[in-house]
Each structure stands twice: as structure tokens, then as C-alpha cells.
Task: structure prediction
Amino acid sequence: MDWQNEFPLAEGLCYLNHAAVAPWPQRTHDAVLDFAKENLGWGATHYARWLGTEKLLRKQLRQLINAPDADDIALVKNTSEGLSMIAYGLDWQAGDNLVITNQEFPSNRIVWESLQDKGVEVRYADISCDEPEQAIIDITDTNTRLVSISSVQYGTGLRLKLDTIGEHCRNKGILYCIDAIQSIGAVVFDAQAYYADFVVADGHKWMLGPEGLALFYSRKEIRDQLKVLEYGWHMIEHAGNYDRDDWRIAKSAQRFECGSPNLMAVHALSASLSLLLEIGMEKVEETLNQKVEYLLTKLSERPEITILSAQAPERRAGIVTFIHADIPSAKLYSHLKSSQVICAQRGGGVRFSPHFYTPLTALDRAMSFIA
Result:
């Protein structure tokens, strides 16, 4: 498969910002264009087929995270919405505590801190150590209701051993939530092997999809612990049977989808995932790792560069963050952006985040602009 044909980026552009918002593959562009053309000419005549694509997307997401069933997958607007459903769906008691890390993106921090007026204590594990998993485990206790962590930290790219944390949580009866936005689509992900109760991730980063559509996985056995917060025609059993006066909340994760789906985004994300699944996530991870290794090697050859990201293969995914000894990160970032190197200023430095298809020539070009 010629991956470059799927990503006809502008000439001279070095796109190293997949940890923020990714460009779409060609097939995703085509899927949205076809959807728009059909809507223009036929309206909702073929709505049943559109719902077939929605059903396919749930199956693709199930496969991507190794969920037990497609019924465990809900389609929500974004990671923050999914996390909020958990935070305000649980029946918290005064004295409960929850654990996050001291490196979380605001989405996986603010929502939990908002619970403090309910008497819920938020504990912050310091993961800037040799054994970050143990740091998380050590601050849990008998009053810990939930652990919510990012699988890969957005700033430094630190990748956590999710199964180690998950096994502890399962053994102690602690709910376990994974913000997987920086790993799904970049590396192999296994919700069952990680003992995850909840997994939440937007599709617009490593999954190469549009903004406005996210995965929300809830384990069947604990799903009833979440109160449903939004009601409508779509979140009930027998959705679409408008003549029934009686109703009950859907048993599946569709209970978290109160109204009409975002079918344009559904078509886009389904197309993007078809590429990842055709290649296979093992191959995607392997190829991305080669790009990251190449970047780390090139950066290590520059004495003025200090790499902030963990360099051990098991501790990284697709993020490489670094600082320059003589150029402030804000200035270097601005210079790179003006040179068509699309990256980010995160984690105290400049963050590069290539994907599996990123050409080595693009990495070389980006490095050439670091004075």
C-alpha cells in the first residue's frame, strides 16, 4: 500500500502535529465529499445506509480497542463530554477520593477537580519518576473510587503500563478510566488486557478523523453504575419506534447518546479507521516507532538539544518533546511554524508528533530548521 497517496500534503509542509489535530487521509476527504453530494441530490433518502455506516464504525472502534462487543461503544462529541458523563454519572459520597496524575491535559483534570464541592478529594500522582505506575498505585486507598489517567501524556509523551494500573484497580474494586486520545491510532490498544472500565478518546488525533466525534467505551458489567444524564429518542431500547408510549434506557452504550448522530463525522471517521485497520495496528505502531527512533537519534546528535521525552521504547508512543539550549521554546516554535514545520509548544518544550506515514525527508527538513 502506498501510504503517501493517502496523504497529499502541501509541498514543503512538515506535518508533525498529530498529537493535536491530524490531517485527513484522501479516503476520508472522499467519503465526506460523497456524503455531501448525496445529501445535496437525495437528502435523507438513503438514511438507512447512513445508519449502516454508523453500525460499521462501532465495529471498527470495537476492533481497534479490543472491546468485547460493539454494544460497548458509544459515539459522543469529544473526550471532555465522555469524561463528564463519568464524573457526573457516578454516585459520589463525601470522603471518596479519585486519582489522576500531575501531568494531565486539562480535559482529564478540570472535570475531576469540579467534583471537590461534593466532598470528593482529588489526588495527584507525581509520575516524574522511574516507576510512575507505582506512584499512582501508592496513593490509592480504601476510599479511592476511581483512577483516571492518560495512556500517553500529552506534554512529554510518557507512555504508561496500563495493565499494571488496571490490574491493581480491578483487584481493589476501583473504577479505572483511560483517556486514550494520545494512543488509539498510534499504538496497539487493548481495553480488556488493561482491565479498563472506561475508555474515552477523540478521533481527530492519531485516528486521523474529524473533530466532533469521540469513542466512549464502558464495560458492560459496570455500565449501570453511571446515571444517564441526557434523555431523548436515541438513548432508549426500540429507538426509532415512535409509536410506543413506554420506554426504557438502552442496555447498550447507546444509552449515552441522547439524540441524532453526527453522520457526516461518522462517515469521515469510519473512512479513516478503515485505513488503520487495513494496515493493521501492529504495523502502524512499528512504523511510527521507526519514525520516532529516527527523530530521537537525530536530536541526540545535537549537543544543544535536550530531549524531555522518555526514550525507552516501552515508554513512548508518537510524541517527542525537546528544548534548545540557546533558543527559548516559544521562539523556536514560532520559527518552525513560519518554516512550515507544523508542531506544538507543549510540556515545557517543542513537541514533534509524526505518524506512521510521515516521510523521513519531512523529519530531515524539520531538523534543518533547528538552528
In short: The CA atoms of residues 237 and 251 lie 7 Å apart.
